[in-house]
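Weekly structure sync, notes
Attendees: PL, DS, HV (note-taker this week)

Item 1: Phosphoheptose isomerase
DS walked through the input record. Source organism listed as Undibacterium terreum. Sequence as pasted into the shared doc:
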Amino acid sequence: MTNQRILAHFQESAELKMQAAEVLEQPISYAIELMFSALSNGNKILACGNGGSAADCQHFAAELVGRFERERLPLPAMALTTDTSILTAVANDYSFQEVFSKQVQAFGQAGDILLALSTSGNSASVINAINVALERDMRVVALTGKGGGEIAKILTDADVNICVPHDRTARIQEVHLLTIHCLCDGIDVALFGGDAND
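Item 1 (cont.): predicted structure, written out as tokens:
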């Protein structure tokens, strides 16, 4: 029984990834263009999300500041999920719903990108961060699922919603991680050309 469940997880994940590839190829490509443009103009990428999505934000920032698959100069990306003093101060003094929006107000500038992750598309703290980003003339790349939720409704035509066509949180997160790797690879190729092994 356990082995069957394990195989079922792998099969469902693999099937979703192939299905999602067709749906998400274009929005991922557009997100890469937005990020490349921002980084090449001296702007930065801020990332926010809760729980597993917070871990994905940190993963993304680490790949840009450190490296993905090639040696290169560090790229300016910052996860808004890591400073426990800021997170707990804002949550305590205001509300948890403002833990990311306050940081976008502090660090975000026109031309920057907000990478906003929410598997449901309904996370209040992420929605508030998006609203502040849009007020500051930042562009938003949203990674969502389950139809995109409220986030899909507030994005502008200049933003991009990479919405995984699935309702199961674990499967959405798996595709979000693959998407993050696609973004990192696309940014590297757009900025530096070729392949990491060239």
